[in-house]
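Ops channel
N.P.: pipeline sanity check, posting one input/output pair.
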């Protein structure tokens, strides 16, 4: 008996041990399972929640994000997204209702939305009873849907309206409050929030956000349950552009073109006219304008810019090309021969390399000869003895060509690269071109390049290079955005000026500024001078290819004040509509008009004694063609003066 009891005791102890082990194993397994579930919930909970919810009775709804705004330097909105609503009809809800509910809901819908027809709504309910999503109307402002929303909320006055049969899907449309102003600079948005050109394109990812989603379903008690994942709105970009400065510039460009429409030739005042206003001390672009432009709120309406006669016979591909021409940002995408505006850079190259010292004199006899091929100066009889300063004041090609012999091709090509020609500036805009330079130069190539012919560049290249030339030699990367804000207005990033390199010494910069000051006060740039302001600058009249057609691109680039310049303005007129195109005073007159309005706005005050101007000597309007004049001295030559055509 004792042995039997002993065996039972041993058996019970073994069973207890096994039970304890089994309990521990079950506990460990449950703990591991709980841990695994917690891990899945933490790492993939949202994924499985979507899967479960997607299998329930109601489909999910997208909550659209709001694309970020584009604002100017002072916070004025240039581009924004306005909320609009689609009217959604849920037949699955209404088809299950009593007749009085169906009648009441449809009656309210047709009363609030006259575009809807009652018979069509009844037909949808009858023929599509399982269709939960029909878009009846698109992109209505809130004011238009508000009456129906108020009816839905007022169940006492409108007891027969089903609240779930009609709902409103929110989305956003892009709006540009200033229409045509800064159009190619701002850009616009195509379907799906895709920036097409300008800042809208370059900063597309910054401006875009992430859609949210509402997951809705019916639970076992037939109650509506939902889970919401909110949308993340896009960020706002703060540009360097001042919309008031931009407006002034565009107004003057349009004025020139409109006043000279149907001038010498049938058509507008010029083929193209464009301008850049920059802060030379940091690369901020304050304005970047061209004419003709287009309406950002209706960018594909080509009929607004071309006559029926011009559009007649144009196929779809040709019309797209016409639109692309309108959309192009001329200031960064169009390449051209700059002409005399780059002569100061040639001089700076000589001074910096020590191949010129500033005391040289040259005799201009009206031309230079290259193995029997003459390259003429505008003054066929010559300017006579020219100093370096006087050669810029007179814009003497002959003197510049003689300087090029001392400078040499290697130095000249090196400084073209230093000043950023033949390469993109890196401005934060799409579509920038880099221009075309020589890889090897003959003496005649060097001579014509020295006064800005026979190589191609862009406006932004010239403006950035010139800014470094007059600010002490600091080359800043030009840019149009200075700050990025989150949807709540907090600063995410401040885009500081990027100093890329030193182009020239401070001493050379000061010498060039003195020359340019004299060019405006006493030389060929005098018609751009604003009375009472110290100012420097340079004219240009570049002859276009083919030379025999005698077509010109005239320009002026200037800065002020003389000490510590605060702005650079560069303006070109491509093929002015006059019999005599080769006059930079067309460009000078427009620059002067811009500055006279711009300077007070920028709180830049006169810093020189005002000079009385007799009425008979006052500068004529830019829309008036000079009478009885040849192209002004020093501006670019006629067709027999530039025999080389490398392009």
């Amino acid at each position: 008996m004792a042995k039997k009891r002993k065996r039972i005791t041993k058996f019970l102890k073994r069973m207890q041990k096994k039970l304890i082990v089994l309990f521990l194993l079950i506990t460990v397994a449950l703990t591991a399972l709980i841990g695994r579930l917690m891990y899945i919930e933490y790492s993939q909970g949202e994924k499985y929640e979507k899967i479960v919810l997607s299998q329930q009775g109601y489909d999910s709804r997208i909550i659209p994000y709001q694309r970020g705004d584009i604002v100017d330097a002072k916070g004025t909105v240039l581009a924004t997204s306005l909320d609009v609503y689609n009217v959604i009809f849920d037949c699955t809800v209404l088809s299950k209702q009593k007749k009085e509910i169906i009648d009441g809901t449809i009656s309210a819908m047709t009363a609030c939305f006259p575009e809807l027809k009652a018979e069509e709504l009844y037909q949808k309910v009858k023929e599509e009873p399982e269709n939960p999503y029909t878009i009846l109307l698109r992109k209505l402002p809130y004011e238009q849907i508000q009456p129906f929303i108020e009816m839905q909320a007022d169940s006492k006055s409108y007891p027969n309206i089903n609240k779930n049969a009609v709902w409103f899907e929110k989305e956003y449309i892009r709006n540009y409050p200033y229409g045509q102003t800064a159009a190619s600079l701002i850009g616009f948005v195509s379907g799906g929030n895709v920036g097409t050109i300008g800042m809208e394109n370059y900063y597309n990812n910054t401006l875009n956000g992430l859609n949210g989603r509402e997951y809705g379903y019916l639970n076992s008690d037939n109650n509506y349950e939902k889970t919401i994942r909110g949308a993340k709105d896009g960020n706002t970009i703060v540009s360097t552009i001042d919309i008031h400065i931009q407006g002034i510039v565009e107004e003057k460009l349009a004025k020139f073109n409109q006043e000279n429409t149907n001038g010498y030739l049938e058509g507008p005042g010029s083929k193209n006219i464009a301008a850049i206003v920059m802060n030379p001390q940091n690369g901020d672009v304050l304005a970047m304008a061209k004419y003709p432009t287009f309406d950002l709120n209706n960018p594909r309406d080509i009929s607004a810019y071309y006559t029926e006669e011009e559009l007649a016979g144009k196929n779809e591909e040709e019309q797209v090309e016409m639109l692309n021409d309108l959309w192009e940002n001329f200031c960064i995408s169009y390449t051209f021969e700059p002409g005399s505006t780059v002569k100061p850079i040639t001089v700076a190259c000589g001074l910096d390399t020590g191949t010129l010292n500033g005391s040289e004199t040259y005799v201009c006899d009206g031309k230079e000869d290259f193995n029997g091929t003459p390259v003429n100066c505008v003054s066929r009889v010559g300017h006579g003895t020219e100093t370096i300063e006087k050669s810029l004041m007179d814009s003497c090609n002959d003197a510049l060509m003689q300087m090029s012999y001392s400078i040499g091709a290697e130095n000249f090509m090196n400084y073209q690269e230093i000043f950023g020609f033949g390469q993109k500036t890196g401005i934060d805009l799409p579509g920038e071109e880099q221009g075309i330079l020589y890889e090897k130069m003959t003496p005649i190539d060097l001579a014509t390049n020295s006064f800005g012919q026979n190589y191609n560049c862009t406006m932004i290249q010239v403006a950035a290079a010139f800014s470094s030339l007059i600010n002490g030699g600091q080359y800043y990367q030009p840019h149009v955005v200075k700050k990025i804000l989150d949807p709540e207005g907090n600063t995410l990033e401040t885009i500081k000026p990027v100093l890329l390199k030193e182009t020239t010494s401070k001493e050379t910069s000061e010498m060039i500024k003195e020359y340019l000051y004299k060019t405006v006060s006493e030389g060929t740039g005098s018609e751009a001078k604003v009375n009472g302001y110290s100012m420097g600058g340079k004219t240009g009249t570049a002859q276009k290819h083919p030379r025999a057609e005698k077509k010109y691109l005239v320009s002026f680039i200037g800065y002020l004040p003389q000490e510590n310049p605060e702005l650079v303005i560069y303006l070109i007129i491509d093929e002015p509509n006059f019999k005599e195109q080769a006059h930079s005073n067309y460009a000078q007159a427009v620059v002067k008009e811009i500055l006279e309005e711009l300077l007070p706005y920028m709180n830049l005050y006169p810093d020189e004694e005002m000079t009385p101007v007799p009425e008979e000597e006052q500068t004529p309007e830019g829309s008036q063609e000079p009478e009885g004049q040849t192209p002004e001295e020093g501006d670019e030559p006629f067709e027999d003066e530039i025999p080389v055509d490398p392009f």
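N.P.: looks fine end to end. Confidence is low (pLDDT under 50) at residues 619-623, 625-647.
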